[in-house]
Design brief:
mainly beta; OB fold (Dihydrolipoamide Acetyltransferase, E2P); five-stranded mixed β-barrel; 16 strands; RADX
């Protein structure tokens, strides 16, 4: 069938009602958002954002309502989609923006693809990777992996991906989303090492839409976290250390979930795997810790400084 491109869509969307099918690759995936309110009677008030791209650039795609439970888990980073009977809307201006792995990629930020059960009823097809043809010109998923030795030089809020061997994982804690609100964020602290520094990555991992992974992070697992943000204390408090926190588009993977993920081809991931082969499992096991209370950033040693 006749396929259009994201670039053509941006130029012609105002003058069209029906659009040709789209062939795109998913580059980023946000956590699932629940927007239900007691007074509004909606069956499935869910929404999820994806950043999708073809040879012409990258655009946001929004999955709405009952399409979320049906499709959210099947659409992964790297998945190729054929979209038919979708709608085009003006972009929501306040949504979070992931940092693309390819800084040269053109971003279409004025409009977004809207996928709904009706008006019009969208048809989504997943194209198996072995059937994807090179002539479609779909971009590969690119990452921004860093090693622990590179972390100290990075600025606050810098976006990056990391891989490490988990040496500590804390208990699940919670914090209020807003003061006096009844909603909470769940999070846990973890440490991961990659052999490039004496210091571990300190990771603040908020519960993403991957409960099966979040609940099973344990010492000695290989942990991959994508779209993490650097947090450093800008007041230059010497007792505080730099750490990484999850963003709205972060994905977390542990041993058992890595097979077939696009990042397995990344050079820094391969280097890390080589390093783990030189380590003694028994020695590393002795250094691992699980659970307990983890105050971070640590308070100063005495009350006067506090």
């Amino acid at each position: 069938s006749k396929v259009t491109s994201l670039g053509q869509l941006e130029m012609t969307w105002r003058s069209r009602v029906h659009f040709h099918p789209l062939l795109v690759r998913v580059l980023h995936k946000s956590r699932l958002r629940y927007y239900g309110k007691p007074e509004k009677k909606m069956d499935m008030p869910y929404q999820a954002y994806f950043e999708v791209a073809d040879g012409s650039g990258m655009m946001s795609m929004v999955l709405w309502n009952s399409l979320c439970p049906e499709w959210y888990n099947s659409i992964k980073v790297g998945t190729v989609l054929l979209l038919e009977q979708y709608a085009i809307k003006t972009s929501y201006p306040f949504k979070t923006q992931p940092t693309p792995g390819d800084s040269q990629m053109k971003r279409y930020a004025t409009i977004e693809i809207s996928l709904n059960v009706r008006d019009p009823p969208t048809k989504i097809s997943i194209i198996p990777e072995e059937m994807v043809k090179p002539e479609w010109g779909l971009p590969e998923v690119k990452y921004r992996f860093i090693t622990r030795s590179e972390l100290d030089a990075l600025p606050n809020n810098h976006s990056c991906d990391v891989i490490g061997l988990v040496t500590f994982v804390g208990r699940v804690e919670r914090t209020r989303k807003r003061e006096h609100s009844e909603d909470f964020w769940l999070y846990r602290w973890a440490h991961a090492i990659d052999g490039t520094s004496d210091q571990p990555f300190i990771l603040e991992l908020f519960a993403t839409s991957q409960p099966d992974v979040f609940e099973h992070i344990h010492p000695m697992t290989y942990l991959v976290c994508t779209q993490m943000r650097v947090v450093r204390d800008l007041t230059e408090n010497p007792s505080s250390r730099v750490y990484l926190t999850t963003s709205n588009e972060s994905q977390i993977f542990i041993t058992g979930w890595h097979k077939g993920q696009p990042y397995t081809k990344d050079t820094k991931v391969k280097n890390f795997i080589q390093w783990t082969k030189t380590q003694s499992e028994t020695d590393q096991m002795k250094k691992t810790v699980i659970g307990g209370y983890y105050p971070f950033p640590r308070p100063p040693n005495n009350f006067l400084k506090y």
